[in-house]
Amino acid sequence: MFTLFRYGLAPVVLYCVIVVTAGIDAFLTNAVRKSTWPQTAVTVVQSQDFGDVAAAFRGTPNTFPDPRGTLKYVIDGKSYDWRGRGREIGVTVMKPGDQITVYYNPRDPREISTLVLLGASTGSIIMGVALAFLVFYFWFFWLRGFLRRSGPDDFHGDVAVADHVQEQPNTIIKRPMEKSFDQRLGATFGKR
Q1: Cα within 13 Å of Cα(87), Cβ side
Q2: In a domain, 94, yes or no
Q3: What is the pTM for the complete model shown?
Q4: Which of 49, 80, 113 is the last residue of a domain?
Q5: Are residue 120 and residue 108 in the same domain, yes or no?
Q6: Residue 9: which residues within 8 A CB-CB, separation 6 or more?
Q7: What is the separation, in whole angstroms, between the first and last Cα of the chain?
Q8: How far is CA 25 from CA 29, 40, 106, 108, 127, in A?
Q9: Residues 109, 129: one domain?
């Protein structure tokens, strides 16, 4: 059963490795971009959020803002327009006329982002759980046997038993030959 779980959990282990790797990649990529990309201010020209319309119809607040709109900005005297979903650049509020500070890729100024990791807290929790599972899995199924101390029932690491075995010469133990089953049977039932 132990071996079944050791190898049966392989898909979960692979999933956790992918989650942890992706999380580390996202945080490192974001840190590198923050340190190497310059900043600029963009102006929101047009914006709409269909979630606001649905929330107003229901009479509830919009708990998941997802604006779409158009932004204008100038880099090195050249004007650029950006159209798309606000979450793509890390924005959840876009109102016409707002000024938003964003980072831009110096090699391709059309690539902009606030470099705010939306959902980073949830992602950090998922990554932490995946990492904790990986640590437990490798400790329980792979490392625990190597790190275990020898006990009274563990002869593999017991030096005293190893010394005792080396002291005895390799001899064959001779026992008196026993009677066969037929001889014993005849001795019991053969007498009349």
Answers
A1: 8
A2: yes
A3: 0.64
A4: 113
A5: no
A6: 137, 141
A7: 57
A8: 6, 25, 21, 21, 12
A9: no
Cβ atoms of 47 and 96 closer than 8 Å: yes
Give one word for 75, left, alpha or beta, with left for phi > 0 and alpha for psi -120 to 50: beta
* Total structural domains within the chain: 2
Is residue 175, in this structure, part of any structural domain at all? no
Are 103 and 73 in contact by the 8 Å Cβ rule? The answer is no
| Residues 134, 149 within the same domain | yes
DSSP summary character for residue 88? G
- Domain, as residue range, for 51: 39-113
- Kindly state whether residue 138 falls inside one of the protein's structural domains: yes
pLDDT in tens, the chain (192 residues): 888 888 999 999 999 999 999 999 999 999 999 999 999 999 999 999 888 888 888 888 888 888 999 999 999 999 999 999 999 999 999 999 999 999 999 999 999 999 998 888 999 999 999 999 999 999 999 888 777 765 555 555 545 545 555 555 555 665 666 666 666 656 555 555
Amino acid at 48: Q
Q: Give bridge partners of residue 78 from the DSSP assignment.
A: 75
96 and 61 in a common domain: yes
